[in-house]
Structure formats: C-alpha cells, structure tokens
C-alpha cells in the first residue's frame, strides 16, 4: 500500500497489520456459565496498581448476558497450540453444548470459571459499559490474575487464521460473515439513532 491509497481496501489492509492475541472470556451468573472467543481486548490503564481492560462483546452472544448480569469475567490468554479451544468456545453456542465439558475448570475468587491449562488469565470487574450498537465495550478493573511464562508462544489472530485446519478456517469465515451481517444491522440502527447532523 502506498501512502496515497484510500478507501475500504486500504482500511482493511491496515487493520490486517494488527495481530492481536487470542483471548477466551468466561463469565457466570445465576448458576450458569459461559465463554467465548473475545475479538476485542485492550489494555486501558498505564497505572501499575490500577490495571484496567476494555473488552468488546457482541450483544447476541449468551456470554454477553452473563457479563452484563454479573459484572464479572475472566480473560484467558491462549497458547499457540490451543487452537482447539477456539473451535470449542468460538464456533459453537453455549445454548447447544456445554463448552466446558471435559475441561479442567476452577473458580476465580469472584466465582467465574477459570480454565486451568492456559498461558495466563485476568479476572475483571466491570466498571462501565458503552453501548456501541453491535456490542458493548466493557471497561473493567483487573482484580486478579496469573501471568504467562516469559518464553511461552501465544496464539495470535494471524497465526490462528494460517495454522487452523482448512475446514475450521472455512467455518470461521462463514461465522464471521453471519456475525458481520448481524453487526452491520445493529451498527446502522445505532448510527441512525445517535447521529446529530
């Protein structure tokens, strides 16, 4: 891309240059637990003793309802070899299957599910939420955690998209297109309601 290229293709090419870690988010409320692959996670504080995170969760997912009800969640940082957890938590609905079946799962101090065999995890308490139409961006205080080892290889989005089996990549693409259509309608409705001139 040259410096003068503009438009949708240039925007998408620039966004593809980002290679975020793949995070798995879990939550629980009213004796129900859920989890999903979280596509939007960002550090939101430079104050070491006041860590904060922002996560964006699409409203159509059951796990969004659990976070909204409980005000708590755990973010799990995945290792490069944990693509199967993406299939389990990102490609099927909690409404249809117990995503936690046969996994070693503990409880965080605040009662959220914690997967034992991950690179690291952060427990978070919601401080605020911003409705953006297609999703809610939750600002959360980080209250607890377990760090990854210094030499561990983390699963990143581009690594997932290049190393996943062909059938998994095809299903991911299909689901992204479906979710994108849902999100497009929600964003359009939100913009129509919030634009002022």
Automatic annotation (TrEMBL):
GO MF terms, alphabetically ordered: FMN binding; riboflavin reductase (NADPH) activity
Domain of life per record: Bacteria
Keywords for the protein's UniProt record, in alphabetical order: Oxidoreductase
Alphabetized InterPro entries for the sequence: Flavin_Rdtase-like_dom, NADH-dep_flavin_reductase, Split_barrel_FMN-bd
Pfam families according to UniProt: Flavin_Reduct
Domain Flavin reductase like: residue ranges: 15-163
Gene3D superfamilies hit by this protein: Electron Transport, Fmn-binding Protein, Chain A (2.30.110.10)
Repeat in keyword set: no
Protein name (database record): High molecular weight rubredoxin
Gene responsible for this protein: hrb
């Amino acid at each position: 891309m040259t410096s003068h290229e503009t438009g949708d293709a240039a925007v998408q090419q620039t966004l593809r240059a980002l290679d975020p870690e793949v995070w798995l988010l879990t939550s629980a409320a009213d004796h129900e637990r859920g989890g999903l692959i979280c596509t939007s996670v960002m550090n939101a504080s430079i104050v070491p003793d006041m860590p904060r995170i922002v996560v964006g969760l699409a409203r159509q997912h059951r796990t969004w309802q659990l976070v909204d009800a409980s005000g708590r969640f755990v973010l799990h940082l995945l290792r490069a070899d944990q693509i199967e957890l993406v299939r389990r938590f990102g490609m099927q609905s909690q409404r249809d299957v117990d995503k936690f079946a046969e996994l070693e799962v503990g409880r965080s101090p605040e009662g959220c599910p914690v997967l034992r065999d991950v690179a690291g995890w952060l427990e978070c308490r919601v401080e605020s939420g911003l409705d953006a139409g297609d999703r809610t961006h939750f600002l959360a205080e980080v209250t607890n955690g377990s760090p990854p080892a210094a030499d561990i290889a983390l699963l990143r989005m581009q690594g997932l998209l290049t190393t996943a089996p062909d059938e998994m990549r095809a299903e991911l693409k299909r689901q992204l297109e479906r979710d994108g259509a849902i999100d497009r309608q929600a964003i359009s409705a939100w913009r129509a309601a919030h634009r002022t001139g």
